[in-house]
Write a structure and sequence with these properties.
Blueprint (H helix, E strand, L loop, with lengths): L1 H82 L7 E8 L5 H12 L5 E7 L6 H10 L3 E5 L21 H14 L4 E5 L5 E2 L2 H6 L5 E3 L2 E2 L6 E7 L2 E6 L15 E4 H5 L15 H8 L7 E3 L1 H4 L4 E2 L9 H10 L10
Parallel strand pairs: 1-2, 1-4, 2-3, 6-11
Antiparallel strand pairs: 4-10, 5-12, 6-10, 7-8, 8-9
Helix pairs in contact: 2-3
């Protein structure tokens, strides 16, 4: 009797178990179906995103092609502007002395992009070296500017050492003189001569200010002489003195970037040149004196010397102290074959 009850209980339990499985089987199927549908939706979303990104890439490619075409047009226009005779428009001869240093390529590249915005110029770059370097040659070639590449080496006994303060000895003297020699031999048309160091910063409006210089045009220079700016003092459109801390009694107390000279004045004084003997802060004044100029000859520009359009910024010297550390720690450092 007991055995029959156990059998019936077993049969009833089995039946209930099958019933429970039957009831929940649909739910299980629904869960699997929902998971499958969710994964399918995820795939569809990813596919839609992929197609959208592909479309965006195509748009960007077309935009890139349009910009490349526009750039080529602008470069052709630039070449035309630089190559034009510009009859009646004086050419600006820009003299830039330069010397080998870590920042040289960066400085020259930056200056070249400024000069590319200025029509009818000729850039004269003079290296302080025994020969022309490939680095400067390549920068000038890439600039697409009308330019001349020269060199003149400063003798070791008068050359500024790395540890010397920058005011101790005159810099760029022989290089600027080499450029003046080239100008006297090669410049045929009317023009203006301007001395532009490679580590200064220039507003392109400055070049139009100087283009029609009659004798010598002058303007302020920012961030120079440990002042906010140095400048000629102007009264009634005439220069009457100098805003400078360092020896304001100098005849022409100006920075090299603060004036431009008419080309004919350079030609008519064939012996005028920069001199090592001029002394600290007197290179500019000494040259202008040799050109036979007086304060009354100076032509104030930049709104009567009230606007700063050039800055004596100077590039900070780079430190390579981690090159040696990297070599010791990792047994390698920067590839010397990569031009910086």
């Amino acid at each position: 009797m007991i055995q029959r009850k156990l059998i019936n209980l077993y049969i009833a339990g089995t039946a209930l178990a099958f019933l429970w499985i039957f009831i929940n089987f649909g739910l299980w199927c629904d869960d699997s179906r929902d998971s499958l549908e969710l994964e399918q939706k995820k795939v569809q979303i990813l596919q839609q995103k992929t197609e959208s990104q592909k479309s965006q890439i195509e748009v960007l490619k077309r935009h890139k092609d349009e910009l490349s075409a526009e750039l080529k047009k602008l470069e052709r226009r630039l070449d035309t502007l630089q190559g034009e005779d510009n009859s009646g428009v004086p050419r600006i001869y820009i003299i830039t002395p330069t010397h080998n240093r870590l920042e040289q390529k960066a400085d020259l590249t930056r200056l070249s992009y400024t000069l590319r915005l200025v029509p009818n110029i000729h850039w004269i770059v003079v290296e302080d070296a025994d020969h022309k370097s490939d680095l400067v040659k390549n920068v000038l070639a890439n600039s697409k500017l009308s330019c001349s590449h020269l060199f003149a080496s400063t003798p070791p006994n008068v050359k500024l050492k790395e540890t010397d303060p920058n005011w101790l000895k005159p810099r760029g003297v022989l290089q600027r003189n080499e450029a003046l020699r080239w100008i006297r031999l090669n410049a045929k048309n009317s023009g203006v001569v301007y001395l532009a160091d490679d580590d200064n910063t220039y507003d392109i409006r400055l070049f139009e200010e100087m283009r029609y210089t009659q004798k010598v045009s002058v303007w302020p220079v920012g961030l120079v002489g440990y002042l906010r700016y140095e400048s000629p003092k102007v009264r009634n459109k005439k220069v009457v003195g100098w805003h400078t801390y360092w020896k304001p009694q100098r005849k022409f107390a100006m920075d090299m970037a603060g004036f431009a000279v008419n080309l004919e004045l350079i030609r008519s004084h064939p012996k005028a040149a920069f001199r090592m003997s001029a002394g600290r802060g007197n290179q500019e004044s000494d040259l202008l004196t040799q050109l036979g100029l007086e304060m009354s000859d100076l032509e104030p520009r930049a709104d009567d010397c009230t606007k700063v359009l050039v800055w004596h910024t100077r590039t900070e010297k780079s430190s390579l102290k981690n090159e040696e550390k990297m070599l010791k720690l990792y047994n390698y450092n920067s590839d010397p074959n990569i031009e910086v």
